[in-house]
Amino acid sequence: MRIILxxxxxxxxxxxxxxxxxxxxxxxxxxxxxxxxxxxxxxNNQISVTDNDGNAQFESLSKGTYPIKVTFxxxxxxxxxxxINESRTDVLELIPGxxxxxxxxxxxxxxxxxxxxxxxxxxxxxxxxxxxxxxLPFILNFTPSVVSTSDAGAGIGYTxxxxxxxxxxxxxxxxxxxxxxxxxxxxxxxxxxxDIASSTNNIQIQRGVGTSTNxxxxxxxxxxxxxxxxxxxxxxxxxxxFGSYNTRRHSIGFGTGLLNNLWTIDGRISKxxxxxYIDRASSDLTSYYFAGGYYGKKTMLKALVFGGAEVTxxxxxxxxxxxxxxxxxxxxxxxxxxxxxxxxAQNMRNSGRTFNWYLYDNEVDDYKQDHYQLHLxxxxxxxxxxxxxxxxxxxxxxxxxxxxxxxFEDYGLDNVIVGADTVFSTDLIRKRWLDNDFYGVTYSFNYxxxxxxxxxxxxxxxxxxxHFGELIWADFxxxxxxxDRYYESNGxxxxxxxxxxxxxxxxxxxxxxxxxxxxxxxxxxxxxxSDLQPIDINADFDFFNPKLGAFYQLSGNDxxxxxxxxxxxxxxRSDFIDSNVKPKAERLNNLELGYRMTNSNKSIGVNFYYMGxxxxxxxxxxxxxxxxxxxxxxxASYRAGLEFEGGVKLSDNLNxxxxxxxxxxxxxxxxxxxxxxxxxxDEYNIISNEYSDTDIAFSPNVIAGSQLAYSPFRNFExxxxxxxxxxxxxxxxxxxxxxxxxxxVNDIRLxxxxxxxxxxxxxxxxxxxxxxxxxYVSNGYTFGYQGGPDYVVRENYYYPxxxxxxxxxxxxxx
Length: 814
Prior knowledge:
By secondary structure, the chain is mainly β.
């Protein structure tokens, strides 16, 4: 092995010694011939800017073909491959941008460089580097204050993320300004749009309340995706990925470029399959994206349809702590406490870290979701433009469950008489369905003159969703037809918001910002819930969400910013259905203070945040009269922290970027509820435990990420990706016996690309996850009860993540 490494190092050294050519370029306007100083150039993994004469030079180049991309504000991008076999000088001419661009679609809901909010961005190059077929949370994993998790353990299937400790229901997500969060649960299910990253041009992640956007309230952050934009040249891409756990991804994409200098058509289809790390936690995912656009000088019209179909074997229940620790006595206790049958008990005793609770062959989640969007943008004159978008999302599907020994009365059925005996329960198979429509319009009107920039925008959306359950099989025959609905309800939610944003340049260095949003929600739901309890919800909310701030440009590229924002958020569907009292809306006051600095070799960002909650909804251990967990409003809680992020060019071949979040996340006063059913389990006693200044669950005090990238020779990069997440408590009691241990995980990513004048790119990528084989879990939950003072049950469940595994990708672009 040492001999091989030595030969490789000598070869790389020899290759570097042979590098002897220089490449000089001059960037000009194609119409006037005028030089363009300040144009951005990406060449040979180097970033440069043209000087006052429009010139830039790259030295010590070896023989070969290199990709180059030149961008300049107000001009179309220029991308091409350049063959270097001698020192040469080129004049690159940029075409003034006479056509509308896709950025206008998302500009109203995004932060600009001068907006005084905290945000990070990923461009298409960064997305492609990290995209090996895993869901989007794993592509965002190395951005500040983000923690990602995977039910199946390998990043494909059901995945999720938290920002500053806030879960998916508190993170607003939009695609081209259209809300993605489910209207009732307010969660985001990335599995419904697999491989969306392959059709994403850029992503902005705002932390905290951020700027006004459409859809669910941002209580931890917001994620804004912009799908692929216009490309002037025809192109195609074929991607194939193979990896651990029989993972494979196959994707084909195409684009016509500009047809008649006005029209474009783009498309992609993908297929992803994986067995998952957890037993039987397989995923079978199909994804598609098609877009057609008209790009005029002042008008753009773009239609998109995208979506996916997923069939994932359920791994929602997690792995008992006793199984993870190979605690034989603890495993037997879990078996006894949960009344497992012989097959279930054997499965638990024999599975180990990859344990999956479910055994039924078709214990799957089967769901399809289709998104339709139509965007119209028009530049009326130099001062005024507008964008209007309509959208429709159709989702439908079910999850199927095999149930052991369920009572007939739980399904509204009579007991079965067999001879002289009465049968009260049976094994059965059920399906629980969702069938929903989400549609509406978003809009923005933009006015800019001198130091003033105004944006007036908003959205009006409606969600109409059916919830129902079917019985499709039972061990005991009784009077029902397969497909009969044993519960059914409908929910309708209207969500209207309107905002006005104003930017005003008081002086050269000082820009002030004001953002005022009004949001109105009406939610109605009637019918019967899955536990056969009647539903009758009629709730209305009116929210005013003001935001103001200032941005001050120091000398050079240094800047200070400060902002204060208010966010309000309505309860989710389960809060209304399960709570014993009417839940109240949550309120968040968010202060952000930051400093940014960038130059050609380094960037630094430091941000302090304080997020003060009023009436935050949290789990306390309380359940309702049918055993469903209930979230309760707590009067006061907060998150406060410091975020550091930066990047530095250590040498021509070595770059390092990193981020660190240090935080405190506290509930001022918290009451835990535990139920004591007595020694004979025939009592119902409530035990209340009082806590003060306790940690908010799933909120690590330390989150850190690092990417160290080294390019030993042309077109090859090896990167060490590191992630540290501090300990997290499973509930709000700060109890050391109910926590997720801190973990430190390292990945290795290798990329090598081949370019030619005829081939746009042939890229080989290898992502080795968890290179040090860390045994860790990234998510979990806990519950407890008592059977008298001497019988106390506390069960912790976790979601183990995969040991060392790999994903190898070959991408052909032409």
